Amino acid sequence: MTKKNAVSVNRLTKIYAKNSTNSIVALNKLNLEVKEGEIFGLLGPNGAGKTTFINILSGTVIKTKGNVNVWGFDVDKNPRQVRASIGIVPQEVNLDAFFSPRKLLELQAGLYGVSKRNRITDTILKMVSLENQAESYSRTLSGGMKRRLLIAKAMVHQPPILVLDEPTAGVDVELRQNLWKNVKNLNKEGVTIILTTHYLFEAQEMSDRIAILNKGNLVALDTTKNLLDKIETKKIVFKVNKSIDLSKKEISGLFFSSKSNNEIMVGYKKNKHKIENIINIVKNEGVEIIDISTNDGNLEDIFIQLTKN
Fold it and tell me: What distance lies between CA 219 and its chain's CA centroid?
């Protein structure tokens, strides 16, 4: 069964006018779709247009041109339905210090016009693992708990789409893993997730598909696997029994460099060389290979390649 688009944008453009002669193009004719039920990574360096894109979805920034459709609703014709279909989890932790999680969620539900009988406060607290802290003051919560409470706040009106804007900024490793476990559980429940993050390994681990923005332009949009498959150069590190310098060795498609502790690093174009051939080249230098490790590259390599940043 074909999944519908949770979000689709067509030729989306946002221009900020600095003065009568100067302007900044924050988004330039952007075309993309987010599929229902996926975790969609939105990446890009600072100033790429990610926050502008999210703010247009949330209705806090007015687009200059183009079409934006959220859960089947046009952002211009049906702004209230769009806002009801999306929950935004902001970067900044902004919570009332003297409200408990339960009171905060009840208040937020009231602001969204959710009637008391339709509120699912206890369910949401359980989903984000805060049921034991339901009556505590927000100021007593840890950093990770506060992040999870922001997710809970964004879910009080039960939106089918959740946007997480840098949700793990400043959160330690253990809390980050805990947060992602919660996000994956929400996704399993059917919530579509749009994620922006500066941690590229995080996007690689979490996302089904990834879009990369640079200076307002879409420079990549593909499955995480396909993006990783585009990495042309792999690395292989040999630990050998004696120190040798191969940095001046010239073979087309191979790049040699010597590391410390009797290690040789070889970069190679994967469409030109097989690992067996590289092993033979190193052995022919009169050394014994003690250990081999390979690195297939990661999203960071693609990101740098596409953004030149």
Answer: 15
